[in-house]
Design a protein that fits this description.
Chains A, B: It is an enzyme of class 6 (ligase). Chains A, B: InterPro entries: aa-tRNA-synth_Ic, Rossmann-like_a/b/a_fold, S4_RNA-bd_sf, Tyr-tRNA-ligase, Tyr-tRNA-ligase_bac-type, Tyr-tRNA-ligase_bac_2. Chains A, B: GO terms for molecular function: ATP binding; RNA binding; tyrosine-tRNA ligase activity. Chains A, B: Its main location: cytoplasm. 2 copies of one chain form a homodimer. The first copy, chain A, has 405 residues and is an alpha/beta fold. Chain A has 3 domains: 216 residues, HUPs (Rossmann fold); 73 residues, Tyrosyl-Transfer RNA Synthetase, CATH 1.10.240; 78 residues, Roll (Structural Genomics Hypothetical 15.5 Kd Protein In mrcA-pckA Intergenic Region, Chain A), CATH 3.10.290. A 6-stranded mixed β-sheet of chain A has the order 1-6-5-2-3-4, sandwiched between helices. In chain A, strands 7-13-12-9-10 form a 5-stranded mixed β-sheet. In chain A, strands 8-11 form a two-stranded antiparallel sheet. In chain A, helix 4 links the parallel strand 3 and strand 4. In chain A, helix 1 crosses helix 2 and helix 11 packs across helix 15. The longest helix of chain A has 17 residues. The radius of gyration of chain A is 27 Å and the shape is elongated. Chain A starts with a helix and ends with a strand. Chains A and B meet through helix 6, helix 7 and helix 9 of A and helix 6, helix 7 and helix 9 of B.
Chain lengths: 405, 405
């Protein structure tokens, strides 16, 4: 194991806070001295499906701990998911059914495996312990927290203030999460900044049970591709780890300049000095963004796919047709006796738009061209002779090749 | 069954509120019309031991329902007792162990049997259902209530305002009590005024489960013998149903005049007209108090014991010694060679006081007399000749006869 100071330096990258930091230093030192790995917990509630880069921030930190020789313990909150985690949500979130939770858990873990080395991780399901609990056990747990404590939690406080309901079931969540730490004897727990309250509940429970309390390592919330709100699926400002290389790359290129430092710090392992150089004044941010995009795409699809995605992006930016143009079969009966068709009907047949009226508008705006010479189509009503293999472009992004069938 | 209107008239005596009253009238009418008894619930938490007159207020109402042909359903909250009911308490009350709860329940029921006809009552233990619940069942229950709702409960609100802890476990209590009503399909639930919140929680749960909601019948809180605070063991202002006749009678005679109407209304079946006559201006309240005392003592010890207690009280009030004076053996070695002893030492030997210094003070204040002639003892230091059978009086109440052994 590397010396504690060196580990601390690496682990500090990109984090928001270590609470309490002095305890963490002591834990690292004892671990390095005795060669005993720290048990680093990260809990996942299988309530969603698509892991995006926002989720990867703590997962990458977990992987960093693994690479330093520590033990990653992933808690699948299959039981807690039945309650619904209200953290950082402004509304009550209903729990899921048992079947949904199981399916989500399998799917989630498959995605997590792209970041964490699951072969070296402990994966535990909190249903393993909570499913055996009686009412009395729950009562005993709920004796450890007061309404005052729960109401102090930032998101709950906001909801209480605006008179939105906070259900008692939601109050059980931090206690359950805390108990997970007791069960697995966690030394460190990772989470987003908004998780700090939950991560600290565990400390009291662990001490009650005679265990050394865990340290909370909180990570900043990744901003979405809009550069404004937190990354999230519902806001449409996310980059999913399962998205194809070109989509991922294109999305990275679309982010404003401002969040680039955060993205580099949290989503890549590039040395900070290198990052500083790329983001220095006078350097074209477009170049840095391309490095960022390729680095991120490489992590999920490999360096070749990343290069290809970058090349395709450049071609498109230069107004060139992409290297591969999808061929779309258009049945014979779509054409008239002379083998002709109006352009709006052809665009719909090629699935480049869903309505002929939309297509008509784009044509009138001069957004449709055909053939190698990019001949503009201007009359939406004129039937056009369509040779097999004709290329049709709609707007800047949409393109297809006619395959008469 | 008597007509609903007549029953309503009887049942209204002494109550604080029926919520909602219109529903109760409909239930009574349907019951009288179809001859179907109402199911009247009263829950008891076996957390204490001595049933006092304050507890008998709802129990007597329950008995009245029985006498009108309805079904009394007594819930022994053996499971809820493990949480501790915070109703009307200003502090968190810790739960009991399972063993304590079982012993208390047996003892409690024996005392309740002095008021309710247990042979005609259903007695249910809520551990019968709650002990089978899983964590998920509890979560499902806690989804039915918000922090806002719980915080509105008067006693919780007070504690929250003064920053005293309200434990999450305590918030489960009203939900558990409410679920009891679902299990036994209660039509009416009885309780003290401070129970109104809890009694209404059941209505929501019952409706969620497709049952007609129960009606809450709340009773005023009986004031203690001090005429000021609610009757309670810890305040020392209570009259226990298991206390001896003379103690009960004496305590009734000690109450101020003000709460007499409440005592008559809630603790006796005397017609209201008769009570009005006794409490009319110009009538000596002492006489009314004696009727009250005898009526109450009769309920727990029979009319003869009540009369005897009243007679003994009159004698003592007139300054006479009681009919039976306890004999206390005093060993020979307590006396000097001449068969004498100082009065403070004799008082302690007779167990009339626990310390000689206390006894000395009472002597100096002129509070000690001996013999049939009530000769005052004035010198605490003078040894006194003590014949066998000597009567010693300390203050107004304490008396013993020396039995030299």
């Amino acid at each position: 194991m590397r010396p504690a100071a060196e580990q601390l330096d690496l682990l500090r990258r990109g984090i928001d806070a270590i609470t309490p930091e002095a305890e963490f230093v002591k834990k690292l030192e004892a671990s390095a001295r005795t060669g005993t790995p720290l048990r680093v917990k990260y809990g996942i509630d299988p309530t969603g499906i698509d892991v995006h880069l926002g989720h990867t921030v703590p997962l990458r930190k977990l992987r960093q701990f693994q690479d330093l020789g520590h033990t990653a313990v992933i808690i699948i909150g299959d039981y807690t998911a039945l309650v619904g985690d209200p953290s950082g949500r402004s509304d009550h979130r209903a729990g899921l059914t048992k079947e949904q939770v199981e399916a989500n858990a399998r799917d989630y873990l498959a995605q997590v495996g792209k970041i964490v080395d699951l072969s070296r991780a402990e994966v535990r399901h909190n249903g393993d312990w909570f499913s055996r609990w009686t009412f009395l056990d729950v009562l005993d747990l709920t004796r450890r927290m007061t309404i005052g404590q729960v109401s102090a939690r930032e998101d709950f406080a906001l909801r209480l203030k605006s008179e939105k309901p906070v259900y008692l079931s939601e109050c059980l969540y931090p206690l359950m999460q805390g108990w997970d730490s007791v069960e697995i004897r966690a030394d460190v727990e990772l989470g987003g900044t908004e998780q700090l309250f939950n991560l600290l509940v565990a400390r009291d429970l662990q001490q009650d049970e005679g265990q050394p309390p865990q340290v909370a390592m909180t990570m900043p919330i990744l901003v979405g591709t809009d550069g404004k709100q937190r990354m999230g699926k519902s806001l449409g400002n996310y980059i999913g780890v399962s998205e194809p290389p070109e989509t991922q790359f294109g999305k990275v290129m679309s982010i404003p300049d401002e969040p680039m430092r955060q993205y580099f710090t949290l989503l890549t392992d590039l040395p900070m000095a290198e990052i500083d150089a790329m983001l220095a004044p006078g350097v074209n941010p477009r170049d840095a963004k391309e490095v960022l995009g390729k680095t991120i795409v490489s992590q999920y699809h490999g360096p070749e796919a990343a290069e290809a995605a970058a090349a395709a992006f450049r071609r498109r930016a230069a107004g060139e047709d992409p290297e591969e143009i999808p061929e779309v079969p258009v049945p014979r009966d779509q054409f008239d006796a002379d083998g002709r068709i109006t352009m709006p009907r052809l665009i719909v047949a090629l699935k480049l738009d869903s309505s002929t009226s939309n297509a008509r508008r784009v044509i009138e705006q001069g957004g449709v061209t055909i053939g190698p010479d990019r001949t503009p189509v201007t009359d939406p009503k004129a039937p056009i002779a369509v040779p097999d293999g004709l290329i049709v472009r709609v707007g800047k992004r949409k393109i297809a090749r006619v395959r008469r069938s």
